[in-house]
């Protein structure tokens, strides 16, 4: 911005999918005072430890401030010329299958839109994927199988008006703290029950009325058992099922085949029969139930089936899209939802459209695109495997660190070194991915400098507004993409001057020839002028032209987005039992801790946040620790078939026997030995392509 505001700027927290509103008051020294925005409907003024420490993370230390080629500072003109030349030459020589862009749930919707348009519409490549693939793509696939579209049916208020909250694979107390606090406050006044289904004794489990420490990977059996029991006990809403769904008979038959009764369910899931009985009974007789699920469900070899098994129970009881009822996916990242909305996944096109002939033609006409991608591209793990095989030769990584965060991170790091063209847009001057041979480094504007929109877990679009001047030569990511597009001869289609212009185009595409068959429609926002966009209040979609409501739910009265408008029950597959590997008898589960985010490029700057847990660790059950001869507080070497890490041991009775837990945040930059991404196997869910980060065969030994 030409002039920085003197009053607090209303913006949105850049961390989790809760999407809290933040008031940032620049201090004219490059920092800012941070407070929760009392008017933002995600948080009503609350912030968690990470959000409230944002002002401590704004220093320019470690920032990438100038474009670089081969380690030497250069101009944007020279760098962009080389990026455009590299992609042009690769396309001419090897075709669109040899180029790719890898994005991030940290990016703004406008950045995502620009990248998706350039690659899928103008370069003919659908190799556009994102680190959101690692976060919630099983939810996307589960929604699409059941509903026909990637639709979150409910809203945050449902979490406060439910009488039963079931958390599955979610440590919301640490990972979605403000929303969790809202739920606890409502629970205190309403007496709602909390059930937590998680192999670990997490902070969320500690607050639960009932904790089911489930055997990892068996959630779909638990919810199959629940479906069978709901049917046996007369809790199925026959009217809703008959009027609005299909496939119930096949799903219930399969559920009974997998988990016919409570005792069998308990045995499969490694739980007490009484606990399973209590959960099923509570679910059956409580009308207002919300089932929340997160990475413990999504990051699994059968993640999409887990989502399907949960949704089945809500469809069967008709508890969906009504106040206080429904399945609810908690997205991890600040803009995983916005990325989904523009089509920032390799198997989606744009505006929640798929790669069917009609949609391809529709988007082609809207963009006036010369070279439309006609088929889905490679999902994240496939993309980096293709790089390793030399099939993808030109890659642009934007706002993420795949050489640390992808499964088999060491192999990914090696694969990157062989690229002909390797471009990275980054805030930071060094990380594992930059260190893997990124030739062209583009300095990106960061939170507090960027201007655009994000969408949170309840489909609410909020503005991220700048309150600091972009330092050095940092620029917005959408701008860098548009500049490359212009150099490739597509200037007219990428002639945006502001993020508001990008957003308006995105909103117009959502409404383009959309006769109600697509859920995502924000046509009402396609005519915002610059002033309106700047002042835009948080708004939930859909926001169709002529019908904007303040609160929106889907599916209470059916109206699914399948061809016959009925929801699809899913007959989930029987549990796959992974083969036992004698050398790796334990199962490694990776995840987050309360006060760090991703690879700590921002949270690592705050002493307050870093002091919560200061070093990488591994949690192990006391019996396993004794067996492996490792002791609390000492170091141990954790190994898998793919890598090794040396971690501080935490002997933890809340950990399930046979399982280890290690956090994801430390990288080669922050801990030479604590890089757990290197250990994670690259098993993926067959529908979503999401990696299973929760069950890598592993071993542990004293150092
Ligand atoms: Fe930010 Fe999430 Fe904390 Fe809200 S709950 S302040 S969005 S990290």
From TrEMBL:
It comes from the Bacteria. Its cofactor is Mo-bis(molybdopterin guanine dinucleotide); [4Fe-4S] cluster. One of its GO terms (biological process) is cellular respiration. GO terms for cellular component: membrane; oxidoreductase complex. Keywords: 4Fe-4S, Iron, Iron-sulfur, Metal-binding, Molybdenum, Nitrate assimilation, Oxidoreductase. GO terms for molecular function: 4 iron, 4 sulfur cluster binding; metal ion binding; molybdopterin cofactor binding; oxidoreductase activity. Residues 6-62 form the 4Fe-4S Mo/W bis-MGD-type domain. Belongs to the prokaryotic molybdopterin-containing oxidoreductase family. NasA/NapA/NarB subfamily. This is Nitrate reductase. It comes from Methylopila turkensis. The chain holds residues 5 to 707 of 889 of the full protein.
